[in-house]
Amino acid sequence: MLQSLTGFLVETLRETVSEFGTAVQDAAPKVLTAVVFLALAYVGIRAILFVVRGVLDGLYPEEQDLVVELGVAVAGAFLWFGAALALLNIVGMTEVAASLGTATGFIALGVSYALSNMIADTVAGVYLLRDPDFNPGDRVKADPVTGTVSAIELRKTRFESDEGDTVVVANRDVEKKWTKYDATAAGDAAATDAT
């Protein structure tokens, strides 16, 4: 009885090691391909992000580096997500990659709906930062404040009101309608409307 149990354990161990060795041999080309792909993806993504940063740096002045960083971060997220899906396909997990891609699409749709105001503020902030008529130091009327623009950020604009208070307004509200007052003319009579 002891010999049959020992023989059974030895045979089970031998079969397990043999199957493990066969599995490692079968998986080795996929693992090697995945490692090479990851190395190439890393170099490629770094190069693409370098180019994206250069292009955005050329489009936006230095004081708008926040827009450049946002663009590079978004591009990087998309590129790395695509690389992760391709890696899953390389290692033979095609169904997982397809499911992950679909699920991410639905999650992104829900997140974009939940963050729609933040996205609207960010898009309006990019427009305000690019607008040559809207700059820090300008005297502006934007509902609900009239004052001097002290800072333009991606999601909000800060004004110093006529009373000396700092008023923070969401960029989507500022972009809807604002009026710039001509600094060289006297009073509010020389206002120019910008929409």
Key traits:
single chain; SH3 type barrels; 6-stranded antiparallel beta sheet; 6 strands; 16% strand
**How many domains, as an integer?**
2
Radius of gyration: 29 Å
SSE succession: HHHHEEEEHEE
Helix content: 55-70%
Mean of residue pLDDT values: 85
What does this structure look like?
The protein has five helices and six strands; from the N terminus they run H-H-H-H-E-E-E-E-H-E-E. By secondary structure, it is α+β, with helices and mostly antiparallel strands. The chain has two domains: 113 residues, no CATH class; 59 residues, SH3 type barrels, CATH 2.30.30.60. The chain has a six-stranded antiparallel β-sheet with strand order 4-3-2-1-5-6. A hairpin with a 3-residue loop joins strand 2 and strand 3. Helix 1 runs antiparallel to helix 2 and helix 2 runs antiparallel to helix 3. The longest helix has 58 residues. The termini are far apart. About 3% of the residues have low confidence.
How are the elements arranged and paired?
Blueprint: H1 2-59, H2 65-90, H3 94-114, H4 116-130, E1 139-142, E2 145-152, E3 156-161, E4 166-170, H5 171-176, E5 178-181, E6 191-194
Antiparallel strand pairs: 1-2, 1-5, 2-3, 3-4, 5-6
Helix pairs in contact: 1-2, 2-3
Short characterization:
The chain is an alpha+beta fold.
